[in-house]
Amino acid sequence: MPPDPRAVLAEAASLLRAGQVDLAIDGLRRATAQFPAIPDAHRMLAMALLQAGRAKDAVQSARAGAQLTPGDPHALLLLGVALLGAGQAEKALTQFEKVTARAPGFAEAYFQAGNALSALGRFKEAVARYTVALERDPRAIEALANRAIAFARLRMTAEALADFDRLIVLQPWMPLHVINKGGLLMEAGDLAGARAAAEKAVELAPGHPDALFLLGQARLAANDLQGAAEALGGAVDAAPERADNRVMLAQVLRRLEAFPEAIAQCDAALALDPKLAGAYYERAEARRALDDAPGALADLDAALIAAPRHVQAAVARVYVLGDLGRVGEIRPAVERAARLGPTYPDAQFHLAMDDLALGHWAKGWQGYEARARIIPPTYLPLPFTRWDGKETPERLIVLGEQGFGDAIQFARLVPLLAGRGFPVQFLVRAPLIPLFRSLHPEVEIIEDLSGVDTSAPGLRWVPLGSLPLLLAHDPAQWPAVPYLAAEPDRVRQWSHVRAAGDMVIGITWQGSTRRDLDVGRSAPLAAFAPLAEIEGVKLVAIQRNAGTEQMDEVPFRKALLRLDEDFDADGAFLDTAALLSHLDLVVTTDTSMAHLAGALGIPAIVALRAVPDWRWGREGEGSIFYPSLTLVRQARPGMWDGVFETIAEMVRRQMAAPSANEGE
Question: Which residues of 20-37 are buried (b: 16+ CB within 10 A; e: fewer)?
């Protein structure tokens, strides 16, 4: 007696319910071979194959079932689902549209049509299909969830948030709805809302990796690095197989300067996915901070092989080529980055800095405006109209930005605004106020907007770094140096640093404490030994804060004149400016001290890495910004010995010059 098809199908259904999908598929294949005219056999086989993730195989079975029952909307729907799962969204959409034409009340068909349209990137049409599905079934959770995502893709944030809120009301126990809402808030820049959503999701599901990842993102955006590391570490522990979570954790660890730990996370991510460009990029940044430029370059090249349009890697590669002193490769690399990211601020900013380094002033200052869009930006806009450089405002606020050195460099242009018939106020960080009071008598120096009527219609503002673009492209046309001055009373107070017959040299060696920003710029104090060995030279350590611990470690520590703890206590560089006026020379690495000496017109020698910051140009001993400075560049990246031997020889010649003149 032939087998009863009902018994065969019942047995297959039982296997499916028991989770024995492969056994069920084997049985159903035999059933379709024995009973090819029974639609249910093909339908059940198609569903089993879909359950097993074998959508391409499911298409054949679903099509056989549809051909046996051409008027059955369920059969057409199943064929469409199989086609969609197999990546054939256009063909799937055709099947779903057939169903909606034959059965207009079939909500599932509209829902699946929306899914097909979303897969095709036709989100506006997808929203319309999801909306019809919801009209047919107002509690269709999946349709509502997918419509919210489609709204988000269309950047219809308010509509998407409304759908997510409805989902949260319908299923308050589901963390995924809260997570999706938080992700959308993060994209919209509502960091507080995103963080609140993430915390709610973690409360609902403490070990949910997506909730912890979102919380880590929100904390990172708020610069809570420790909190971000904790949350992202939890996300990695909850889902160790997810490489992207490890990459984000590596980024946070790198910013915490936990570089070996960051590299370990990248290694683990690459073990999971050897083609993950983000992991190569993060590892490269960590290796660069550890002075492993060759390793960093290898990782960046690997990132660009894995993802040829990875613009962040292309930008980072420019930095590393500079670390390696490969000057000839920098311009092609920065142009490549700019082509990859024509709207990516970092790429355009780096192109601008290279233009400035090459003396292409007009183009460079134009591109320098991209600094407002990098993350983090170099300044935050003020809450009133920005000055265009053409109109005559009733009052102009110049907004200081970037580090102390940048502020000193660009402050030189502020006096050009004085005398134009409108008041000028220079808004700077509080420690710089006393120093900048010497800038120009008609420029008021302020630390906040408390005394400014920000609602005044004629009030305008401009960022300090935009003044070259608006006022004078060529630094050779900028106001004369010196443009800052020390306080006379303080100058008298520091006269005791001199001793008859000595050459007094002030030295600084350490810049930023951030290792990723300071790569190659600072020199160890020990490198200054050739200066300490010159008879008749007195070294004054003007270094403050980071780096001062090295004074107790060098062999020539007793030859260093150290400054009191209250030095510059009542204003940045106030005592320093007065002290510099009694020095014969300043020797510094690329720090704000170079800018201060230049602005005061004090003779100084600046020790530079092989490829220095844009403001020092690519070659030459002179600075177009500061005539009193002499630049000494590394011949080879990382090698300071030759630099300071050269500086020591320059000092010897200077010391010998007066006696030589007296003999003539």
Answer: ebeebbebbbebbeebee
pLDDT of residue 393: 95
Angstrom distance (rounded) from CA 226 to CA 219: 8
Q: What are the helix (H) ranges across 52-85?
A: 55-68, 73-85
Q: In what order do the strands lie in the sheet with 395-399?
A: 443-446, 424-427, 395-399, 459-463
- Those residues whose C-beta lies under 8 Å from the C-beta of residue 224, and which sit 6 or more positions away, are none
pTM of the predicted model as reported, rounded to 2 decimal places? 0.81
Tell me the C-alpha to C-alpha distance, in Å, between residue 270 and each of 267, 278, 328, 599.
5, 9, 32, 49
Cβ density class 190-212: b for 16+ within 10 Å, e for less: bbebbbbbbbbbbebbeebbbbb
SS3 at position 257: coil
In angstroms, the CA 456 to CA 396 distance is 11
Task: Note the pLDDT of residue 664.
Answer: 42
Instruction: For 523-573, give the secondary structure using H, E and C.
Output: CCHHHHHHHHCCCCEEEEECCCCCCHHHHHCCCCHHHEECCCCCCCCCCCC
d(CA 195, CA 616): 42
Q: Mind giving me the DSSP string for 307-344?
A: -TT-HHHHHHHHHHHHHTT-GGGHHHHHHHHHHH-TT-
232, 286, 580 from 219: Cα distances, Å: 10, 21, 43
Q: Are strands 560-561 and 585-589 parallel, antiparallel or unpaired?
A: unpaired
Buried residues in 283-313 as b, exposed as e (16+ CB within 10 A): bbbbbbbbebbebbbbbbebbbebbeebbbb
10-residue mean pLDDT series, the chain (664 residues): 70 79 83 84 86 90 89 91 94 94 92 96 96 92 95 94 94 94 90 92 94 93 91 96 96 94 98 97 95 96 96 95 93 94 92 95 96 85 94 95 94 93 94 93 94 93 97 94 92 79 89 71 93 92 86 89 80 87 94 95 96 94 96 93 95 80 45
- Phi, psi values for residue 123, rounded to 5°: -70, -30
